[in-house]
């Protein structure tokens, strides 16, 4: 009798942990990922601001799963799915545009979210998000190039837009990114330029809510706001970004009279919301289920799709008990989906998914971070140390853990950031003259 075929879509936290949970089970696992690596998304902003390299936060999936004999790793992107009897078929595309099919008996969907521009996808050309390595390297290019441009301009008026950085979204990613830009300017670059003073860089943080980091208790967000004020981030609450161009950003107040303000800047960074990747809609249509406003799919207590016990949705794209789209939810969800499949194979009953809340954390600035774990709340230096321990523990692979620790230690000791090389995206673009 053929072994059950388990197809895992996505090599992020959910997909990786689902595959690992099935290590010793009598199944054949295929992991389909559109990139070659598992990326530790919580530290993408540090890659973007030159604190760590992309290699420190990305581990090849083939390397991570090399000792798991029942796993096959495939490079490709799922484009459609068809349910057939007790299983189904996923069609995927390769780099060159050709397609191939992957049959399954069990399907674990962990394809994640993408940055949401709320009906204005044209903003992406001027305001990159923070979901992929490409995003991080694009942001690094914009940040470093902005300081270099300002250095070459003769007047303060010409330099000002290049030294103004706007961040849309006051959640953890936006706050962390804004704080890191100020640290980059005031510490790493402060003594490296002649014509400009990088510490004069203006960082604007726009957020629609009445406080930043709304997922944290009010007592902690007040401390975070004080830290942002201290490091020089200008926080604008109760506003939405309503236009982005190559040379400025427009924000509109939510309250009457809905004042509109434009800021001259060449660097706008977008962290204001996420949405499901397009494949999730195709999955929902194929399975006959609905999506919520962000594209998430509601799941049963065992993380399967209603009416399809062999199809599981985990991570950011699952909707269950208002769980947040954070790494720990994805990791535990992936393990739970793998455990449910293992139960079916062994003939035992499935268990409902029970999320164990290990807390949330956000980096604000050097020596300042927030950590909440149940009733425990930490901020300041203790929160900062705890934040570091948590993130090192969750990194994939000992080499990445050691490399990141060394980078952090070197930055603390010297105040410099060595990971500031910029790329132009592809050789053809790199060969082109600037104008």
UniProtKB/TrEMBL annotation:
Its EC number is 1.6.5.9. Gene3D superfamilies: 3.50.50.100. InterPro entries: FAD/NAD-bd_sf, FAD/NAD-binding_dom, NDH-2. Keywords: FAD, Flavoprotein, NAD, Oxidoreductase. It comes from the Bacteria. The keyword S-adenosyl-L-methionine does not apply. It is an enzyme of class 1 (oxidoreductase). It catalyses: a quinone + NADH + H(+) = a quinol + NAD(+). Residues 5-331 form the FAD/NAD(P)-binding domain. Signal peptide: none annotated. Belongs to the NADH dehydrogenase family. This is NADH:ubiquinone reductase (non-electrogenic). It comes from Rhodococcus ruber.
């Amino acid at each position: 009798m053929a072994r059950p075929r388990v197809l895992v879509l996505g090599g992020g936290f959910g997909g990786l942990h689902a595959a690992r949970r099935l290590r010793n089970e009598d199944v054949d696992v295929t992991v389909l990922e559109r990139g070659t690596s598992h990326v530790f998304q919580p530290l993408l902003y540090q890659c973007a601001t030159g604190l760590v390299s992309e290699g420190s936060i990305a581990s090849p999936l083939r390397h991570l799963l090399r000792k798991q004999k029942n796993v096959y790793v495939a490079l490709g992107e799922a484009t459609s799915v068809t349910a057939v009897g007790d299983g189904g078929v996923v069609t995927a595309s390769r780099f060159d545009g050709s397609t191939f099919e992957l049959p399954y008996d069990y399907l674990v969907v962990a394809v994640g979210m993408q940055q949401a521009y709320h009906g204005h996808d044209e903003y992406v050309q001027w305001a990159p998000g923070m979901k992929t390595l490409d995003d991080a390297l694009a942001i690094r290019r914009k940040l470093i190039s902005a300081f270099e441009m300002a250095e070459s301009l003769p007047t303060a008026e010409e330099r000002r837009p290049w030294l103004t950085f706007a961040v849309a979204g006051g959640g953890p990613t936006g706050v962390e990114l804004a704080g890191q830009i100020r640290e980059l300017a005031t510490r790493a670059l402060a003594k490296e330029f002649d014509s400009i003073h990088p510490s004069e860089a203006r960082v604007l943080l726009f957020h629609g809510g009445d406080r930043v980091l709304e997922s944290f208790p009010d007592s902690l967000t007040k401390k975070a706001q004080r830290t942002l004020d201290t490091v020089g981030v200008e926080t604008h609450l109760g506003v939405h970004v309503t236009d982005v161009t190559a040379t400025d950003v427009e924000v509109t107040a939510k309250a009457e009279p809905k004042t509109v303000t434009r800021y001259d800047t060449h660097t706008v960074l977008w962290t204001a919301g996420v949405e499901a990747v397009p494949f999730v809609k195709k999955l929902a249509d194929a399975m006959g289920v609905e999506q919520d406003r962000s594209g998430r799919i509601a799941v049963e207590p065992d993380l399967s799709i209603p009416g399809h016990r062999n199809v599981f949705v985990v991570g950011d794209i699952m909707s269950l008990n208002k769980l947040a789209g954070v790494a720990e939810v994805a990791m535990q969800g992936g393990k739970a989906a793998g455990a449910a499949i293992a139960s079916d194979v062994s003939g035992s009953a499935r268990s409902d998914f029970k999320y164990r809340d290990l807390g949330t954390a956000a980096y604000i600035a050097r020596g300042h971070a927030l950590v909440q774990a149940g009733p425990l709340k930490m901020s300041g230096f203790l929160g900062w140390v705890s934040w570091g321990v948590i993130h090192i523990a969750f990194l994939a692979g000992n080499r990445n853990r050691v490399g990141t620790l060394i980078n952090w230690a070197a930055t603390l000791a010297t105040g410099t950031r060595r990971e500031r090389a910029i790329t132009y995206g592809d050789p053809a673009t790199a060969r082109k003259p600037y104008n």
